[in-house]
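pipeline stage [seq->struct] | target=Mitochondrial import receptor subunit TOM70 | organism=Triparma retinervis | residues=630
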Amino acid sequence: MEPKHQKIALACVVLASVVGLLVVMNRKSVEDDVSDLPPIDDPPPPAQSQAPPVPEAGKVVDEGAAKKDTPKTSNTNKKKGGNGDRSEKLRLTKILEESDKEGKKLFKAGKYIEAADAFGKAIEASRQISGLEKQLVTLLNNRSAMYEKAGMVDLALEDCASVLELEVAHEKARKKRARIFESLMEFKKALTELCAIQLDFMHKNKASLMRGIPLNPPVEQKKMEDLCEACLPAATRDAEQMRDEWQKKRVKEGKNHSLPAKHTVGMLMESFSSCSVWRSEAEADLDLGALALELARDVAGAERADLLFRRGRRNAFEAKYDDAFADFRLAEDLAEKESLQGEMKSYPQLLEWLGVCKHLSYDLTGAIVAYEKCIEATDKNDSNKQAELRVKCAGIKMDAGEIEVADGWFTKALEINPDFPDALLHRSNLYMLKRDLESAKKDIEKCLKVKPDFLAAQLRQATLAMHLDQPDQALSCLELADTLCPKNSDVQVYRGELFFTMGKVDEALKCFEKGMEYDPSNPNAYVNAALAIMNIPAVVGSPPDTGRACDLLEKGLEIDPQFQGAYIHLGQLKLTLAKDIEECVPVIDLYKEGLCQCRTKDEMADLLKMLIMAEAQYDAAKLLGMTTMG
């Protein structure tokens, strides 16, 4: 497990967990494109007419009873006679079999349209004979294969539809539809067809699957993954449009600045060594009530803008980030409106806070502009602040996915101060994203040599040790971190993650529970606790406590609506627990809710895969006429 602030690498594992058992789509040989007819039973001989019963001596015959005992003949036999009906069936059967044989011959010769015509004659004959539904299905499927090979996909789809009306789970027809839809770039429909094959396979083999008996399912996992990937571009466009409409609605409601969770903002603040400086300044300043009274006085101009800044900083100190950022924006508006930049005492600090505010609101362009202005307004001799501002610019570029540009900003920061701990800490994260673990390790070691009490660096070193498969080293880092900052929620969460990777799930859960106790606003503690619970049976031999796991995941999302991993895990769990097909709908809605909180395509990717698969499986279940998940 990894905390939310790190990259959640789900990739194919995500797909496998939702899809359950993914299936194999074997490449078919030419001979497999048409199927042999099931045997046709010979028509029975015509029923022999029976003479009326001969009365016994001394008895009178009941004519009504005699009529009841005489077998009835069908209307057809009455019109044509028994021999005529049998003869007609034999004639039609001969047409059917000869046409089928001719169709296969033409197919092998590559004459697909002529073969389709031959199968068409066989289809017409089969429709005139009762009880040949299986043969009709085979013939329709064979003709659809000819239409597909001839490029007449509309007719092929029509025949497939006719097959599925008679046999809803017909595997060849559904695979054919999947191929055709994929060729038409209708990837979602193709995926749905394969999901239908998968669901039917799982339904028919439920008992064996429950017993863990290995089976050879009919569609390949990679095929499912490839189709899901093919769905992503269109799904991403739809998701971005949905998110933009949701955000416009929030703007109308006065909720236009969506910030991460309080805990996430706090962690970002604490990853900069200057955090203790501004906190001390804010704590030494007037409290919020006193600052409000000052602002209530008849103050204007630069004095008022500085008071707004001070109140914003105090709000940030008290973790009231929405109020803090509202004050910073008011100060910015006043300074720009009245050109107070040169008169304000706190203008450079205001610019820096505006950069933080806009970065967290994901206004990346506005954030970089604010930081660049701050660089110009800050004393050039203040090397630490100059370096810190460049590190913050690098962070924006990392979030924008511009890794090389971000690296350039780190280089500039370290040119100003080669031992600047903030630059070393945050550049180590960049190296981890680039999978350059050795360079990340060197930066962290140097950072801790310069600033041994840097908690964020200790936690990063523990994470790096986990990636390097050095659990003892990671544990040592976390023990030191616990000494530096006792009863710290993040230290407990990291320790729990380490125990989880070591297979010590019970100990991991205890750590996550301490994390919730030490800081009830830490969403990572709740989500990771839920995952631990899902790996611990409530009682030996019984299933995990899924109810508590659901509650914890929902609590994690309540604390942090931008926690994409929590949407994925909660959706998976709810799908696992669903008994009725319609219980899939709230899960689909949950994924869409999560997508509205995403800021980038990268954030959307894993959640979109879950949504695509959930919708495809729901649609597939509907195609099959399923009403339950069992």
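stage status: PASS
auto-comment: The CA atoms of residues 16 and 22 lie 7 Å apart. The chain is about 70% helix and 0% strand.
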